[in-house]
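Notebook B, p. 112. Complex prediction, attempt 2.
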Amino acid sequence: MDGKFESYFKAAVSVDNVVFGFDHTGLKVLLIYRGADPYRNCWALPGDLISLDTNLIDSAEKVLQDLTGLEEIYMEQIHTFGKVDRHPYGRVFTVAYFALIKIEDYHLHPSSWAEEAAWFPISEIPDLPFDHNEILAFAKEQLKSKIRRQPIGFELLPKHFTLTELQSLYESILETEFDVRNFRKKILSMDFISDTGLKQTSVTHRPAKLYKYNAKRYSNLINTGFAFDL
Amino acid sequence: MDGKFESYFKAAVSVDNVVFGFDHTGLKVLLIYRGADPYRNCWALPGDLISLDTNLIDSAEKVLQDLTGLEEIYMEQIHTFGKVDRHPYGRVFTVAYFALIKIEDYHLHPSSWAEEAAWFPISEIPDLPFDHNEILAFAKEQLKSKIRRQPIGFELLPKHFTLTELQSLYESILETEFDVRNFRKKILSMDFISDTGLKQTSVTHRPAKLYKYNAKRYSNLINTGFAFDL
DNA sequence: CGAATATATTGTAAAAAATACAATAATTAA
DNA sequence: TTAATTATTGTATTTTTTACAATATATTCG
């Protein structure tokens, strides 16, 4: 390569993760309280600059791993943001990912760059630095559209869940309501959610049956041309 | 900023465009014959390194503009590729876009970096440099999934088109076949394709009616909760 | 133990959408 | 006028979606 390319090799690339979690109060996003400049002492999306010797996806996974201590997190690249002035230190492109985690598996895992992390209800997100509010809005739309066509909702629920919980998850994310009977009919007819034979315990009313998602059955269905669509 | 960030600002970012076109022989992709290193004298996706003072989308649009001479091209970001060794000159991330153009509006528009450009049928794509075959495969899947849920197919057709052409477009992209009667019933029931009152000329058989896409009607429908799904 | 409370579970009829299927119409060319 | 070629259209059947409310199972409290 001759010198005419030099001026291009002065950009940085970061990853930013929109980490979703879900509990009985609704959909939540994990934010970190920045302990370093720029935007020290602000809530922001967890992210990091990428070292030149690290693959994109590895970098995104490492951020998540450091933050949550969890392995095998469901992640998906959503969009790359690259406005000229989005970062005060220079030209930084950021590749955004969304991640879905089981909120009850999450244990706070202090890392060197995050003083603190906390779950924020999706409807109570503060002003975020950089273009993080824009990224979050994008991620929310992506999740909404994705969850209707792929069985990824289960990533947000415990291994065993009730149909009421499942319905509530879909209702939160899609911002709509379903008829209880029709929702159950449809979900169960898809044949990849199976009864565990177990029931809820420690509830003060009729306990619900516990179900689990059967990924193997789902991929069998896909191979026969089945298309999930809620 | 202090010196500890310096090592991150040594990456380059490029854009690569997967430009789709369609005619009676099927779906096509526009490739350029590279006149400069690296990979001089290879067919490749049209793309360019991004200057530090250029926004991502502006850069992608400029590549298309220089290549086709067309304005207002339908473009959409699809994915960012960033494997460590994907570029021989250093760490280059590339943001891939797909673009849909009306193939008959396209006139070859020689640009400084492209010696030649040509349409390749989607089934006859040669080996491409970098990870361009991977990018192309990704774009094809994206187009397939997108075209079922958004009325973007019209971007590939002339302003006035026959229902047979429209059906053939969908069949090419989705790699399936539709029943003629059912396809027409469904498309026309969606109410945003209107009869122009015109007919084909210079055909040696019964001429077909010419229709046009009505974007205004489509957005009205969307606002009433309508969801396009083919 | 019975009643009150709370949530879970289930079926059916009507409407809408998807599917399967083939005859007729309009044009040019011979 | 006929042959050739493609365009256009309808209907009956099946499947899916929708709308709608009564009964079941557990706990807690008198």
